[in-house]
């Protein structure tokens, strides 16, 4: 009788273990690639000698999953691996089918004349600034004090995961995110062209780049892994290389306005331009299509856009659109310890250095910059007709992004 009970108990335990193994190992978790350690790997504790033995104290479930993943790692480490395929560059220049990319164009110069930056010191300084202000109790902003567990899943939709190379990228719209998403697609091989993964980022059509089904993001984990999703997120955040790119907040707003309201964008016209024109320009009976509106000279002004951002009714109706939502709300920099902080102002140098540190610089090149990119020097002209009080309110709205990422306070815009 006792033996029968022990047998049944053994069967149950083995079944539970196999289910967990299937969930964690076979469902594209990427454990076979945990052996890929980049230059960002965290320092090991003195006694740690093997993968999976350098975990800090974790809750029971986290510890079990960590050991399971480490066990899979050891088993896979003996399997011969094919050398990574070099990038087939394809055509040198993309066929631009998107209006925005046609308008801006690409800058194909090599920028060999640019001064090289001491990237290692630059990263240390950027991370030090971020961590100091996250730890500074006198500097506050919404959501700063919450933990990672307090962040709802729908707010984790900007964290793209590449399990093949152990990389997590938090994308920020209007900060070269189209091309970084292309890079992530190439690295993760998440999109095929006639049955073959894309090798050249610029070969990937823009409509596929921004299709949410193309990317594995943290907010999708719940559907795959259920109650284990948050534990797996923490493990990946601990082991993977995490990066984001940021930009001067006011310049990012100008760029968002240019691309979404100065170009004919049907979706943004209906969702945002029509309400703005009605509320702030006193227009009624507006055309239903953006082409008709532009033909009649009905366009949202930059002043309308700023009023919309400052209007307390805006956030009550819905959170800011991702194109003008603050970076601290998109990427949670005080809850996630980023290994690399890039800036659009030094995009070419930062991108080249990051790809080198990720050890994928032989696989691909980062696509070239836009030739007609919104520049910081445009700020004075764009804000010239915006009342001083509005500029000051706008700074308070985006102050956390200025401070956390080391952008100087635009004093010339905030004083008479």
TrEMBL record:
InterPro entries assigned to the protein according to its UniProt record, in alphabetical order: Carb_sulfotrans_8-10 (IPR018011), Sulfotransferase (IPR005331)
- The top EC class, named as a word, is transferase
Topology term for the membrane: Single-pass type II membrane protein
Q: Which GO terms describe its cellular component?
A: Golgi membrane
Q: GO molecular function terms here? A: sulfotransferase activity
- UniProt keyword list: Carbohydrate metabolism, Glycoprotein, Golgi apparatus, Membrane, Signal-anchor, Transferase, Transmembrane, Transmembrane helix
Question: Can you tell me which family this protein belongs to?
Answer: Belongs to the sulfotransferase 2 family.
What this protein is called in its record is: Carbohydrate sulfotransferase
Q: Which organism is it from?
A: Cettia cetti
Q: Which gene encodes it?
A: Chst12
């Amino acid at each position: 009788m006792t033996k029968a009970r022990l047998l049944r108990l053994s069967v149950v335990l083995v079944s539970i273990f196999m289910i967990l193994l299937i969930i964690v190992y076979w469902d594209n978790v990427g454990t076979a690639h945990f052996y890929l350690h980049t230059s960002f790997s965290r320092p090991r504790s003195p006694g740690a000698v093997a993968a999976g033995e350098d975990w800090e104290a974790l809750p029971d479930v986290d510890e079990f999953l960590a050991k399971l993943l480490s066990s899979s790692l050891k088993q896979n480490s003996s399997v011969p691996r094919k050398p990574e395929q070099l990038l087939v560059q394809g055509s040198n220049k993309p066929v631009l089918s998107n209006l925005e990319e046609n308008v801006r164009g690409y800058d194909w110069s090599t920028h060999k004349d640019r001064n090289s930056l001491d990237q290692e010191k630059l990263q240390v300084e950027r991370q030090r600034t971020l961590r100091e202000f996250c730890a500074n109790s006198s500097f506050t902003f919404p959501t700063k004090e919450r933990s990672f567990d307090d962040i709802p899943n729908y707010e984790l939709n900007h964290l793209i995961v590449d399990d093949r190379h152990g990389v997590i990228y938090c994308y920020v719209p209007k900060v070269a995110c189209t091309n970084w998403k292309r890079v992530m697609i190439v690295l993760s091989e998440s999109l095929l062209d006639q049955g073959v993964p894309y090798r050249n980022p610029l070969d990937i059509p823009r409509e596929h780049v921004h299709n949410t089904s193309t990317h594995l993001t943290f907010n999708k984990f719940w559907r795959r892994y259920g109650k284990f999703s948050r534990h797996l997120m923490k493990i990946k955040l601990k082991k993977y290389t995490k990066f984001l790119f940021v930009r001067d907040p006011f310049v990012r707003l100008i760029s968002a306005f240019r691309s979404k309201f100065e170009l004919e964008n049907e979706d943004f016209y209906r969702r945002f331009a029509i309400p703005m024109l009605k509320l702030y320009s006193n227009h009624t009976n507006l055309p239903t299509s953006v082409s008709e509106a532009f033909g009649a000279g009905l366009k949202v002004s930059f002043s309308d856009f700023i009023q919309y951002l400052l209007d307390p009714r805006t956030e009550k109706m819905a959170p800011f659109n991702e194109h003008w939502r603050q970076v601290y709300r998109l990427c949670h920099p005080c809850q996630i310890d980023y290994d690399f902080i890039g800036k659009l102002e030094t995009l070419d140098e930062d991108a080249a250095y990051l790809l080198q540190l990720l050890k994928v610089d032989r696989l691909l090149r980062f696509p070239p910059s836009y030739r007609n990119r919104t520049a910081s020097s445009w700020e004075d002209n764009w804000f010239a007709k915006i009342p001083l009080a509005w500029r000051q309110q706008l700074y308070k709205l985006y102050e956390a992004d200025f401070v956390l990422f080391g952008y100087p306070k635009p004093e010339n815009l905030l004083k008479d």
